[in-house]
Write a structure and sequence with these properties.
This protein has 212 residues and is mostly helical. The protein is built from 12 helices and 4 strands; from the N terminus they run ααβααβαβαβαααααα. Helix 6 links the parallel strand 3 and strand 4 (118-120).
Length: 212
Amino acid sequence: MDDLCASIKDGRYREQHARIHATGFTNVFYVVEGNDPDAVSRLGEAAVSSALSRIQVIEGFHLKQPPSFEATLRLLRQLTESLSDVLECVYAIPDSLIGLKGFQELKRGIRARFPQAHLAISFDAYDVVSNKSGSLSVGEVYLRMLMTLRGVSADKALSIAGSYPTPQLLIDALEADGGVKAVDELVVDGSCRKIGPVLSKRLAEFWTANSF
C-alpha cells in the first residue's frame, strides 16, 4: 500500500498502467499488498479510494489486496496452479513482431480467428514492451520528462512542447533574458490558463540546473 501511495504521488501510477497496456496482456492482476494507514492518511483516503477504483473500472485490471506477504505468496501459488491447468493451447508470438505499430491489431486479429488459443511472448520481448522508454518516441520521452516535474500536467506538457519542441530549445529559452517570463505567459492549449510564474520558475530551476 505504501508503494501504491508513493507511485500516485510521483506519477509512476499512470505510467505503470500505460506500460502494462502496451504489452497487450489481458486478465491483468494488480496486487496491492498490506495496509499502511499512515501512507493513506498522508495522501488522503479519497485519493487512494479513487486510485483503487480506477484500477478496476477504468484500467480493467483485477485488483487483489492480500493483507500480508504470506497471503501474496498464497495468491501467486493459486494463480500459478490455475494457469498450469488452463493454459494447454499456448502459442508464442515471434520476437520480431513485438513492439511494431500494428502489434496490438495483430493480436486482436489472431484472437478473433483462434479464440481458443492463448498467446504468449518471451520474457525478453516483454522486457522491451514494458520498458519505461524502450518503445517510446523521442517526443513522448520529452513529454514524460516534463511531466515528472510537480505541477506539469499532460495539457501543460503539450503546450510547453508545442512552443519548445526539444529540451535544448526549452533550456535556451529559460536561460535567455526574459525567457522565464515568456514561459510564464504560455497559454495552456484548450483553455485560458497560463503556465504561471510558480511553475515557470520551477521549470527553470529544474532544466537549467548544473547538478542535482
